[in-house]
């Protein structure tokens, strides 16, 4: 089977969408299938093309047996709704044109969060007369309304109409959470065409390791209890809460040896750095994004990981994939996200929750855990026990079952129960 996958995030980018697509495609190739990925020049999150790449009309490479075709797009930092939309639309057009030239395709996949990629996949499926799958990783455009990037009005209504059209026209819809599936069912999308394949972790890359001594020394973290956030610094993540927690910690003599690390980039990074300076914070360390091969070393700096999203009903449906990376690393989690992901953490007993945007609650939890090595050890043990249940290799094969059904190569009844949430 030849799988054609359209995505505007792919390695060497290191965000969750890039990792999910690459790790799934790698397993599909191992299972004997051909995979062609159409993407753009790597530029996320800074909106600058990575070294060794250029924003050409077309370039190609082979990555672990995956044929990767990169197309020209309008590249801009992740700042401003209209510029980002132009970026998305340019990829939709360029990827669609490139896809037309890919021969003997059996099935097409378009992935969100922004659904212009899915629009492209739908158009290519019409041209090639092949089925297509909508992989839904975020409820978009609802998510851009939740962070205040777009207000109620005719543009939002038009986007929501297009969104529902795409769900209906896809052969299958694959969501990453059960909450997403329920939300689609409530909007009239038949549940029997929706499959849930959650995010997971590449256990070959993320595993327990000692703190890297040289890196710890270089960052001034030797002898410190380190709490940290690793990931995109975007509008949805509400990372001002971590700055406010750092300010509370700075005023508490019991927290003198505690440091907070924020690693990554995004639309709010410059704001966060400037605000930390204006607040006079000396207990917070900002680190720029690092290559995927180094991410695990930076996770290993931490004694506890902080996961956080803004307090909004939409984000109760989200499961941050970094939670599974923490489990694989044996890293306890302080979880500032309500809903489905909090339920997973509670079930696995791999950390504890705090109220989103509640800086005092977060600061108190960090202080408490810094003094309680026994509880930290229990969380580590539970996290490592849980990690194999979210092995990306198994999840990739579950999604492959869905793809084979969509392509008409297997009967749905044969794979019922194999897919997460079935």
Note the main sheet. 8 strands, mixed
Query: Radius of gyration, Cα only, in angstroms?
Result: 21 Å
CATH class of the largest domain: Alpha Beta
The percentage of residues in β strands lies in 15-25%
> What is the number of helices?
16
- Corresponding CATH architecture of the largest domain: 3-Layer(aba) Sandwich
Structural class: alpha/beta
Fold-level CATH name of the largest domain: Rossmann fold
Task: Outline the secondary-structure elements.
Elements (H helix, E strand, L loop, with lengths): L1 E5 L9 H15 L3 E7 L17 E6 L2 E6 L9 H20 L6 E5 L4 H13 L3 E5 L5 H5 L7 H16 L2 E4 L2 H9 L7 E3 L16 H6 L6 E6 L9 H11 L7 E6 L5 H10 L5 E4 L4 H8 L4 E5 L13 H8 L3 E4 L3 H9 L2 E3 L5 H12 L2 H14 L5 H15 L5 H4 L7
Parallel strand pairs: 1-2, 1-5, 2-4, 5-6, 6-7, 7-8, 9-10, 9-12, 10-11, 12-13, 13-14
Antiparallel strand pairs: 3-4
Helix pairs in contact: 1-15, 2-3, 8-13, 11-14
General description of the model:
The chain is an alpha/beta fold and 422 residues long. The protein has two domains: 2-200 and 391-415, Glycogen Phosphorylase B (Rossmann fold), CATH 3.40.50; 213-389, Rossmann fold (3-Layer(aba) Sandwich). It contains 16 helices and 14 strands. The strands form two sheets. The protein has an eight-stranded mixed β-sheet, sandwiched between helices. The model has no long low-confidence stretch (mean pLDDT 92).
